[in-house]
């Protein structure tokens, strides 16, 4: 165990500087290795389950995208077919990253503060959801972006400070996805920067029950749309020939130009129970 002490101290120092600066941080007396192993197994299990969802429920909907044009009706069907897998992926990713991974890392580095999220699923406003979904990131953005913007940049103009926070968060999330997928497709940026800000004001004065139902509805449809568009772009780049390697090719969406969606003004959807 002594061999692990120095790497853990180094990693602990890096982890502390990623959070809000404090003179002291709450610490546990020792590392509970069973807890670390338990959360590690949770991470592995959830990753395998997410891969199962992607391969079994999402890939069949989009793996042929780019070979031939699809109709707008087929796109709508694929979108609705992505809502359930998107919601499952969303919940699994939350549990994997903000519960299992964060608690395992905190236990490994002896951090006693385990408030990584609150009960965001009970929130009735989008603002409450943003504050509760990821407490670590929210507190960091509030301390180092929002407060500085209010006090020094925009001079007590809180709406502009809120826009600045959403912009920083949107750009950061989009950069992660761009480097992961190796293409730039700003769906996450648009959802965070524009739809997120709009929902901040739309859900502000709603009742608790209506607001909570609307929040879950938006999250379900939003994650389905999110996965649909990114899957379309991913498979379009795999299936379409002559995709260059320049920065322009990296930035331009291929799914819009290579056998994209063809609009048929007379398309209809037949209910499954009406099929003979």
UniProtKB/TrEMBL annotation:
Subcellular location: Endoplasmic reticulum membrane
Keyword flag Metal-binding: no
Cellular compartments per GO CC: endoplasmic reticulum membrane
A biological process term (GO) from this entry: cholesterol metabolic process
Topological category with respect to the lipid bilayer: Multi-pass membrane protein
Alphabetized UniProt keyword annotations: Acyltransferase, Endoplasmic reticulum, Membrane, Transferase, Transmembrane, Transmembrane helix
Pfam family, one: MBOAT
Transmembrane portions of the chain: 35-54, 74-101, 183-202, 214-232
Top-rank taxon: Eukaryota
GO MF, one annotated term: O-acyltransferase activity
Family: Belongs to the membrane-bound acyltransferase family. Sterol o-acyltransferase subfamily.
Name this protein carries in UniProt: O-acyltransferase
Species of the source: Anopheles culicifacies
Classification of source organism: Eukaryota, Metazoa, Ecdysozoa, Arthropoda, Hexapoda
